[in-house]
Design a protein that fits this description.
By secondary structure, this protein is mainly alpha-helical. The protein contains 24 helices and six strands. It has a six-stranded parallel β-sheet, sandwiched between helices. This is Sodium:proton exchanger.
Length: 591
Amino acid sequence: MAGELTLSPVLSDALVILGSAGIVIPLFARFRITPIIGFILIGVLVGPSGLGSLVDEHPWLYYITITNVVRLVPFADFGIILLLFAIGLELSFNRLWQMRKLVFGLGALEVLISGGALALFMGLAGDMNTAAALALGFALAFSSTAIVLPISGTKSPVGRAALSMLLFEDIMIVPIIFILGALAPNAADEGWGGMIRTLWQGGLVVAVLLVAGRVLLPRLFAQAARTKSPELFLSASLLVVIGASLATALVGLSPIVGALIAGLLIAETEYHTEVEQIMEPFKGLALGVFLITVGMSINLAEIAEQIGPIALAVTGVVMFKAIITGSLLRLMGARRSTAAETGLLMASPSETTLIVLAAATSALVLDAETARFWQTVTAIGLTITPLLAKLGAAVARRVDATAQNSEEEEPATARTIIVGGGRVGRLVADMMRTHTKPYVMIDSNPDLIELAKRDGYRATFGDAARGDTLARLGVEDAPAVVLTMDEPVLAQRLVAKLRQAYPDLLIVARARDPDHAAAMYRAGASHAVPETLEASLQLSEAVLVDIGVAMGPVIASIHAKRDEFREQLERDGGLSEKPRLKTGSLREREA
């Protein structure tokens, strides 16, 4: 029929997901609730077990539901890949090396003890054979990287403990999958032989990625930065993460290993802040797709039929894992508050649990009915993870009144941010170093940053006008922001943006002339220094003194002329008070 609306299944699913994100994120942010719960609930509502089951009776529901979860799985997997890539950007190899004892100590103990204890319990209480009990026990021992780290961060004590355990769990995915293959009733030597082959091939690929990445990535991103094209920067970032993920996947390793390595390599370059900022929206959307698929796997009818056993299983797994994880942290010297909060945060099963259960089912280690029951338990556990995080924070405050908030990051030194790495920015940095004041210089020109770092300046690549670049550098706690770039329109926009976001921030800006200085003051600058004016006054001072005029009258006339221009700026800028054209001493400012 002409004019009839027809949508392909893929386009229909995409519209549902984008519409869900447009509703969930602002709505839940309005009530200060994590959108994780919202995405899962949306998945339950629009999935095959929710409104999707009514499409045959009401065809119009096709346009607002998703009836085939399988189509979303690749997008959900990509979300996990981007998440691990972002984690790598935050880590760097130096920080990972510093955490090696936590990763291979705490992480290994958590997986082995939790998995072993759960397997023993399943074997005794569930009357399972050894292979099935081991598969189920270690599947439930995993915790959700995709949900836990966005909640905990990676820099707080809770975040560091969670990250160390999750990193080891991610490493253990491959051997556990292969061991399940070896335990299959119809397996011969293929399982162990395949694991050995994957390990040496994977080790070779990882070594190649590490060497090639250190050589090629700085050059690749430097070329992208020179074009000043955000699209090219995004393309380079996606090329790196997808290429590294495919490389590890081709030899049998998990693609998230390649994504993590790609992030770690980029974290060693000066472009990591820009890459992290560009990838943030894509990571959030892809993670939302994953959470929607989790919600779709929850069948409310099946839960209603088995509400007792399912509730008992969820409660038992959560309590068991919380006790094991919290006890391990206490034995390793963690505070009571950190142990309690981390234990509850890590207590739920994981998206990896679903992968291990599927592998165990295909290997005939677990029967389909048992796997389906524990998949439902896992989906519910993922749903309640944000609630467990809030419960953990509340328990932490009770058991340790002096504990810091779990979301508080490591204290960072407040530093002045210098925007622009040219001659003016360098001069400001020199004065900061002379007076031992911490600073960081930022510029979107990779060549200037490279030269500055080579000359010993604290410099990083980034576009100060885009997104939350300055926020990542700590602008909220910065003593001042100094704008030194010779781009009048961009500087004026940046001043207005900073003043709106940070009303009390000291903003010192370079201006071309008095007219531009007046515009900068109107935009919200604390101080604007016109180059032409100050250069003219200094030239006048030099020539008058050298031709024989006494220093005192010269300085007085310079001050008088500066006052004239101050009055002119007051008139031109419509200011309520006279601005300072040149910052004096503390005594002069207090006078």
